[in-house]
Design goal:
heterodimer; A: 494 residues; alpha/beta; Rossmann fold; 2 domains; 6-stranded mixed β-sheet; 16 helices; 20 strands; 32% helix; disordered C terminus; B: 352 residues; mainly alpha; ABC transporter involved in vitamin B12 uptake, BtuC; 0% strand
Chain lengths: 494, 352
């Protein structure tokens, strides 16, 4: 079944998630869709599987324009989507999960369904006991179950959204074998991923998306540099920053490791000096936030030690880190930062070091007005947090930071901000750096990482895959590492 | 336009549904309301030997108002303290213990019973809080469980250790020594002390959220726990604090029930006033001063509706149905008005 997307537009408010996407997937091919988080891949696939309806554009299946108002329409037309988290009902048995999405509501013939399940399993080399509860299956097995369920429902186009997150290497190999077999049977498979290596291993053709647009297409194999260039662009900045002499050690990690999952494989050791800026690169969910949470005491490492300004803080409470002037600003400004429903004044009172019982609202309002002025926050001291734009929320968060700060940990300092606000944020951060604050920031913006960091740590699938001197590296090298390739190793074989 | 709607819509839904309810119950809408007023504060108000009725109404108002004050604290901390019933009961039990076991000069004894009631309720509230913060037990389920425990404990005490001399009866314990009764106005049960404490509690809660750092931090914890934690607020400690404040106020309400209204411990000592207070607080939209008239009206319905049977042959349970319908229709009206305002705002946003 061949599939064509013509000029798909999908906006969420001012955000253009899909901005005129045109894409053709031939019958019987494995087609890769590559792009960073937020590039619009998932939105496009949700449009294709009936979860979202496009603002404009056409979906053409075997030469016929189709309308998809819901996922039911999509599967009816033969388009099946395997979500990043398989849609499995954990308390139900395998067979109940299998029949749950089938059309019709009256009769439930588990026996007949079990026979069909067995036939499909035999064909693709899976093995399920129909009566096992789904919660006992591994994530990989849940995917397999979901794939056969979609096939049973008549899917002829299969979409897989980041299917390799959270499954073992064995299961990944098995998944790839299955997908290749399906393509040989004439099925169109769309493989959505941000991992260069996997797309290169599996797919015959690749489309690269950035910021809601298709920025390149290629028949594989191609040199990896070409894909990196499509994903991240070629602009390499000349670094214009004043050198700040580095001071005493502020944050020292020694062989830190967590119990399970992220950061469990290779221990991390790191020494951050006063006034040093460490950029943290990597696809979202590669272990960066676990790392930052260890640095601020919200998570205790299983092994290794964390020291702040030379003092061992391993196992100390988050508030002890706070008292040692370590501050963490997570990505969710309104989820883990500001408090919906409270005014700017109330935020400054909470962030202040007042210890009295009663609040002097007159003085508090006056102070808040000054801060609003000083940090050029567009709003008044009585504005609530949620009424502010993202840039102004970030300004409030920065204004709430204590004066004395030894380590600042930040996720996506400028995500979603316009250029003016982004520049302003960095002006503030660099001023802090000038006062000797060590800054560690995670970002998906390679320009930002290159421009402001002294060193860059690259995370890949739960470990640090590279530590780079920011003045001696470039977008290509970081991009490859983010995609899981160490520079120079088997790169040309892609 | 939307400002008018936000008052008119709820008012209209309340009037329509109350009238519909009364018509359904087979009476005209006017008579039952008149009878309720007559049964609770007299008709015309405060005439014809109404003192006793007014006294009862005030003494029903006291525990509802105290529980409402407490619930404003837990609601602001983001908690549904359903366990408030149990906290009222444990307050009553603790006060009853003090009244039975301790003899002291009257003013001191009264003070001791009130303190005992507050401590009893506070500890029971703390237990619900600990289950929530340390055990991860949702406060709604934990509270319900603790309510049953408290209720069973009352029954056990009444037919067991504190049984009436001679006969064990579920109608209650022997009356407490009169020295332990809350001092009341002549010929009524109205205790000015209890009324003043309830008013002070509401003013205190208003002040807490109006002007104190503790109240602001509680509100922050209730609205966004991760953000509050990151700001360095010990969120669990604040949650426990909210449960303890609420429990203490509810426990004083229990004291008033045992030593002000019934003068003994009875099985249904809480009178379901904790659950009623949840409705009051929702209707008052968490504002302490709105609690005063609303809870008084609820107290009037509670005291006045038993006369319905005698006067218009309507089942007195209509009173409870009336309270429920009032709250549901008001919430529906408020929600509807809010939804309309939101839609207006968003369509205005699109146009601009």
């Amino acid at each position: 079944m061949s599939l064509e997307l013509r000029n798909i537009h999908k906006h969420f408010g001012p955000v253009r998630a899909n901005d005129g996407i045109t894409l053709t997937v031939e019958s019987g091919t494995l087609h890769g869709l590559l792009g960073e988080n937020g590039a619009g891949k998932s939105t496009l696939m949700k449009v294709l599987s009936g979860f979202h309806s496009a603002d404009s554009g056409e979906i053409v299946l075997d030469g016929k324009t189709i309308k998809l108002a819901s996922p039911v329409d999509a599967i009816g037309a033969g388009i099946g989507m395997l979500h990043q988290d398989p849609l499995v009902f954990l308390p139900f048995s395998v067979i109940d999960n299998f029949v749950l999405g089938s059309p019709g509501e009256q009769r439930l013939d588990r026996g007949a369904a079990a026979t069909e399940l067995k036939e499909l399993c035999d064909r693709y080399g899976f093995n399920f006991d129909p009566h096992t509860p789904a919660r006992l299956l591994t994530v990989g097995e849940r995917q397999q179950l979901e794939i056969i369920r979609l096939l049973w429902l008549g899917a002829r186009v299969l979409i897989l959204d980041e299917p390799t997150t959270g499954i073992s290497a064995d299961q990944r190999a098995k998944l790839f074998v299955t997908l290749k077999a399906l393509a040989e049977e004439g099925m169109s498979v769309i493989f959505v991923s941000h991992k260069l290596e996997e797309v290169a291993d599996l797919c015959e053709r690749v489309t690269v998306m950035t910021r809601g647009k298709v920025v390149g297409e290629a028949e594989l194999p191609v040199p990896p540099e070409q894909l990196v260039e499509m994903m991240f662009g070629q602009a390499i900045e000349i670094r214009d920053r004043d050198e700040v002499g580095l001071g005493v050690p502020r944050l020292t990690l020694d062989s830190v490791r967590t119990a399970a999952g992220l950061l469990s494989e290779e221990p991390i050791s790191l020494d951050v000096k006063a006034g040093e800026v460490i950029g943290i690169a990597g696809m979202e969910g590669s272990g960066q936030d676990t790392f930052l949470r260890i640095c601020c005491g919200m998570r205790a490492p299983k092994e290794g030690t964390v020291a702040i300004s030379g003092q061992d803080m391993t196992g100390s409470h988050y508030r002890d880190y706070l008292a040692a002037a370590v501050k963490y600003l997570p990505a969710g400004r309104l989820e883990e930062g500001l408090i919906e429903g409270l005014t700017i004044t109330e935020h400054f009172v909470l962030a202040g070091d007042d210890s009295g019982f009663f609040i002097d609202w007159g003085a508090a309002r006056k102070r808040a007005e000054e801060q609003v002025d000083h940090y050029t926050i567009k709003g008044t001291e009585a504005s609530t947090a949620e009424s502010l734009s993202g840039g102004n929320q970030q300004r409030v968060l920065l204004a709430m930071l204590p004066d004395e700060l030894s380590v600042l940990l930040m996720e996506h300092p400028t995500r979603g901000l316009d250029i003016e606000s982004a520049d302003w944020v960095w002006e503030q951060l660099l001023a802090r750096r000038g006062q000797g604050t060590s800054i560690l920031f995670a970002s998906a913006d390679l320009d930002e990482l290159l421009r402001y960091s002294d060193r860059i740590l690259v995370f890949f699938s739960g470990r640090v895959i590279g530590e780079l001197d920011a003045s001696a590296t470039n977008v290509d090298e970081i991009g490859l590492l983010i995609g899981g390739r160490r520079a120079g190793s088997e790169g040309a074989a892609l | 336009m939307s400002r008018v709607n936000s008052v008119l819509l709820p008012a209209a839904t309340v009037v329509v549904s109350v009238v519909a309810l009364l018509l359904l119950a087979g009476t005209n809408p006017w008579d039952p309301l008149k009878i309720i007023v007559e049964g609770s504060i007299g008709w015309p108000p405060l005439e014809g030997g109404a003192a006793r009725k007014v006294g009862d109404t005030f003494m029903v108002w006291v525990p509802i108002a105290l529980a409402s004050a407490g619930l404003i604290v837990t609601f602001n901390a983001g908690m549904w303290n359903i366990g408030i019933e149990g906290q009222i009961i444990m307050g009553a039990i603790a006060a009853a213990w003090m009244a039975r076991e301790v003899s002291a000069p009257r003013p001191l004894l009264i003070l001791l019973t009130i303190v005992a009631g507050a401590v009893g309720g506070m500890l029971w509230g703390l237990l619900a809080g600990v289950l929530r913060t340390a055990g991860g037990v949702n406060e709604i389920f934990g509270g319900l469980g603790l309510n049953f425990v408290a209720l069973s404990l009352t029954t056990y005490l009444i037919i067991g250790p504190w049984a009436r001399s001679g006969v064990a009866s579920t109608s209650g314990t022997d009356p407490f020594p009169e020295d332990a009764w809350l001092p009341a106005l002549e010929g009524t049960k109205l205790s000015p002390l209890a009324v003043v404490i309830a008013l002070l509690a509401l003013i205190g809660v208003w002040l807490l959220f109006r002007g104190t750092l503790y109240g602001l931090k509680l509100k922050a914890v209730g609205r966004n726990r991760p953000s509050s934690f990151l700001l360095g607020i010990p969120t669990n400690r604040y949650l426990l604090g909210a449960f303890m404040i609420c429990g203490a106020l509810a426990g004083i309400g229990g004291t008033s029930q045992a030593l002000g209204l019934h003068h003994k411990l009875i099985p249904a000592i809480s009178g379901n006033f904790g659950y009623l207070a949840i409705l009051v607080v929702l209707l008052a939209r968490f504002r302490p001063f709105w609690v005063i008239p609303i809870s008084f009206f609820f107290a009037m319905i509670a005291v006045g509706s038993p006369s319905l049977q005698l006067r218009v042959d309507v089942n007195p349970t209509l009173g409870g149905v009336l309270q429920g319908v009032l709250v549901l229709s008001a919430m529906f009206g408020l929600g509807w008005a809010g939804y309309r305002a939101l839609r207006e705002a968003s369509s205005a946003g699109v146009e601009s």
